[in-house]
Structure formats: C-alpha cells, structure tokens
Specification:
mainly beta, 2 helices, DUF7781 domain-containing protein, DUF7781, 13-stranded mixed beta sheet
C-alpha cells in the first residue's frame, strides 16, 4: 500500500478489513409454552471483556401484541418488568420498565433506546439472524458490522491544456493529485450465538 500523506505508517489491509468469528457471548435457552405464555430459562456465558456467567428466568405472553416481559436474575437478585420495544422512528426503538434489586433493596425505572444503526463517523449495522434446524431447535446469531464506505474524489480540468499543466505540476510535486481514493473500512464480528430449545404444549 502507498505511504500515508502525513508521514504515518500505512494501514494494513488486515486493519482496514477485519472479520472476527469468535463470539463473545454464548447463550443456551430453554423455553416452554404453556397456555398462551412462554416460560424460559437462559444460561448466558460471556468471555469478553471479562469471563462471566448469568442465569435468567423469563416470562412473556405469546400473543403478537404482547406488551410486557418479566425477567428475574437469581445470581444478581434482580427482577425487571419490561415493556415491548416501542417504535419511535423507522430505526429507533424505546423500551421502558421497572426493576428491583433485592441485594441493594433498591427500586427504579429503566429505559433504553435501541437501534440497528450507529454513528460517530462510522456506520453500524447490528442484527440477529435465526436459523431453525428442526421444530424445537433454533440457532440465533447476533452480528455487528462497522463500516466506512470507500470514497473516490478527483478534479476535472477545463481543457486539455489545463490537464497538461495539472499533470506537470503533479509530477513536480506542487499540486494536489487529480485522483484520490479512500479504500474505506470494515470491522465485522459475530458477537453472540444462541441455542434455543423449545418444548411446545401439544394439549
């Protein structure tokens, strides 16, 4: 690759385009559907940035217009009642709820804004892809991609004489190049793998 114009070391292709397939979160979920409700037990393993383990009990209605979800974490002794995600805009969702921690004996309201897109000069896509192998066994993959699109810029001279002069000045190192290209950047990662086992109520 060509050296950077400001004298810094050139960036390698591995730094510009990097895909990490080692997930930082592994979830094992057991679900049971009983009379219009879904009861779930989650075993959650985290290996980045620190090793951690959590268990979670989840109860939610199965109806499409479900408006709430109950979750309890025995290890942290934290209980939460959350609303469904409320669309604020096309890409922005709001979720509110109330929680209580038995260890701290504290109660408080919680809210969260979520989106699949991000900023700070870098575009972000966050998504979940579900793969159902057989009835009762599903895999869900949570992935993320931070990217900067490639950019090509240039200048168009007014006539051939100007083109000749521009090329000459470029050769002498006295002017900006006629053609610039920014190769962009892509940092993608597989953040989470979920194994979901569901037992359906056939009665």
């Amino acid at each position: 690759m060509e050296p950077a114009p400001n004298g810094e070391e050139p960036t390698s292709w591995d730094e510009l385009y990097n895909i990490n397939l080692m997930p930082s979160e592994l979830f094992l979920k057991f679900r049971k559907e009983i009379q219009g409700f879904r009861v779930g037990v989650n075993l959650e393993f985290y290996n980045a940035p620190t090793n951690d383990f959590q268990t979670k009990l989840v109860l939610k209605p199965l109806s499409p217009e479900r408006r709430w979800k109950f979750a309890y974490e025995p290890i942290h002794q934290d209980v939460r009642l959350l609303s469904k995600k409320i669309p604020v805009t096309k890409f922005l969702n709001l979720q509110v709820g109330i929680g209580h921690n038995f260890k701290l004996n504290a109660t408080g309201w919680k809210w969260k804004l979520t989106t699949c897109l991000g900023g700070d000069g870098i575009s972000r896509i966050r998504n979940k892809t579900t793969l159902g192998l057989v009835p009762g066994l599903d895999f869900r993959f949570g992935w993320r991609a931070d990217y900067v699109l490639p950019e090509i810029t240039g200048q168009v001279p007014c006539c051939f004489m100007n083109l000749y002069l521009r090329m000459l000045s470029k050769a002498l190192g006295t002017d900006e190049p006629l053609f610039n290209m920014n190769s962009g950047r892509l940092q993608a990662s597989l953040d989470r793998i979920e194994t979901i086992l569901t037992h359906y109520d056939l009665s």
